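Record now logged for everyone:
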Amino acid sequence: MQTPGKQKLRDALMLIYERRLRRSLAPDRIPEHIGVIIDGNRRWARSAGNPVSHGHEAGANKITEFLHWCDDVDVKVVTVWMLSTDNLTRPADQLEPLLRIIEQVVDELTAIGRWRIHPVGALDLLPSVTAETLKRAEAATRDVDGMLVNVAVGYGGRRELADAVRSLLLEEAAQGISIEELAERVDVEHIARHLYTKGQPDPDLVIRTSGEQRLGGFLLWQSARSEFYFCEALWPDFRHVDFLRAIRSYSQRERRFGA
């Protein structure tokens, strides 16, 4: 068991290390867009013998902290994956408390008034209260001159691609374009203009916590040329120093853009 004196020394050394890490980051090597897959809330709660809801609450608090870290190093866009389309099939006694926590987080981010909130996902699959919370946040922050925060709720990469193709077909049909004509001219840019993140830069860096080394369907199209950073820490335990290490790792890589 650590004594208070040893803990203070450890905290002081960690603070010095964080400051050194921060100073080592070159401004021109900071990712413009960071995507984060928050993972490990349930395991974090269970490891301490607490209800799963405690993990989701701790994870929700970490989101605001993470966004401040991103803002501090001048990241322009952050996409936070809070709830997948697969999660929507969970039993009501698991899903409904999680949705209430997400709604609360979105309201809190809106109240901060520092970032533009943009819902990313299939809002039609969400309960009306959750969907309205997301729409209200977007409307309330539309004119904020700050970092863009994509809140991915009810998000699935395959669903996004299906929605993009459907939107493209409907748009072209409304202009009288036949399927044959569309097949002749459609390209990747046509589809990209119908993604949930249309008009945004693709993520330069995707971070996933909890030690899992997979995307799970996160930004399938947009992450084709992204760099990835997998961290062992469960999301509620993800620290500022972990974030800085992820940025340092990104800055030291030679990006080949899919090559």
About this structure: The CA atoms of residues 18 and 254 lie 24 Å apart. The two ends are 50 Å apart (CA to CA).
